[in-house]
Specification:
By secondary structure, this protein is an alpha/beta fold. It has one domain: CBS-domain, CATH 3.10.580. It has helices at about 5-10, 25-35, 55-65, 90-100, 120-130; strands spanning about 15-20, 40, 50-55, 80-85, 105-110, 115-120. The chain has a three-stranded mixed β-sheet. Strands 4-5-6 form a three-stranded mixed β-sheet.
C-alpha cells in the first residue's frame, strides 16, 4: 500500500446505505443481497446518521422476538468514525487499529453535515497492500 495514496485515489465512490426509519429486516435483506457486513445509515436528506452492522442485527435477533420489525435507528451506532476524501490510506489503517473497528465512512462536509460518499474497510486496505507491491 502506498503510504501517500489517499482514500479518493484508492476507492471507488458509492456507498450502500439505508434510511434510519427502515426496519432491521430491510437492512438485513440489503446486507444479504449486496454481500456486505454493514450499511451506512442516512437521514431523509442523505446525511450521515450512523452505521448498522451484522453484529447489530444479531444483537437484535438475540434480544427481541420481533427483531425484524425493530427500526434501524434503535440499533445503529451513531458514533461513526469518518474521514475526508483526502485522508491517506496509512492514516485509515491507523484509525482502524486504534479504534478497533473494521471500516470508516468517507464523508464530505456540507454546511456542517456529513454526506457519506464511500466506505473503506480493512479488506480494502489489505487489497491495496497486496496490489501495490
Amino acid at each position: 500500500m502506498r503510504t501517500d495514496q489517499t482514500v479518493i485515489q484508492a476507492k471507488r465512490f458509492g456507498v450502500f446505505s439505508c434510511r434510519q426509519d427502515k426496519t432491521l429486516l430491510d437492512a438485513a435483506q440489503r446486507m444479504v443481497e449486496e454481500d456486505i457486513s454493514a450499511l451506512v445509515v442516512v437521514d431523509a436528506d442523505g446525511f450521515l446518521s450512523g452505521i448498522i452492522t451484522r453484529t447489530d442485527l444479531l444483537r437484535a435477533f438475540v434480544h427481541f422476538e420481533d427483531w425484524e420489525k425493530q427500526r434501524v435507528e434503535s440499533f445503529m451506532n451513531m458514533d461513526v468514525v469518518t474521514v475526508s476524501p483526502q485522508t491517506q490510506l496509512d492514516r485509515v489503517a491507523e484509525l482502524l487499529l486504534e479504534k478497533q473497528i473494521h471500516r470508516v465512512v468517507v464523508a464530505r462536509n456540507e454546511d456542517g453535515k456529513l454526506r457519506p460518499i464511500s466506505v473503506v474497510s480493512a479488506a480494502d486496505l489489505v487489497y491495496h497492500m497486496v496490489k501495490d507491491l
